[in-house]
Design brief:
The protein is α/β, with parallel strands linked by helices. It is built from two helices and nine strands.
Length: 113
């Protein structure tokens, strides 16, 4: 039996995901968010569009038609996390605020739980 996870996507991030999908002519966008081994602290995030979901994926459907898919391995590491899109004087980018991290590297690209 699959457990439910809480993964939040801000309105700003949802709008940016939809904008990118539209620019790339992706009809039914599925954003896959994963945690993968790597980086100097042990894990890092990976995101990209996918064409389908898997049976054991956790699916979050956003109000703008975008779906977010999270695999079973990644789910415990990002349960309770929030995906946001932040704009600043250097441009913009996605960020994940994750309450499960206990350590991150100096460059901010990897973390440990």
């Amino acid at each position: 039996m699959q457990t439910t996870i809480n993964f939040y996507v801000t309105d700003t991030a949802a709008e940016e995901i939809k904008k990118i999908a539209d620019q790339e002519n992706i009809q039914n966008p599925i954003l896959r968010v994963r945690v993968v081994p790597g980086g100097c602290s042990g894990f890092q995030y990976a995101m990209g569009f996918d064409e389908s979901t898997n049976e054991n994926d956790h699916i979050i459907e956003l109000s703008n038609g975008v779906k977010v898919a999270i695999d079973e391995f990644s789910a415990p590491y990002i349960n309770g996390a929030t995906l946001d899109y932040v704009r600043d004087f250097m441009g913009g980018g996605f960020t994940i605020k994750n309450p499960n991290t206990v350590n991150s590297c100096g460059c901010g690209n990897s973390f440990s739980c």
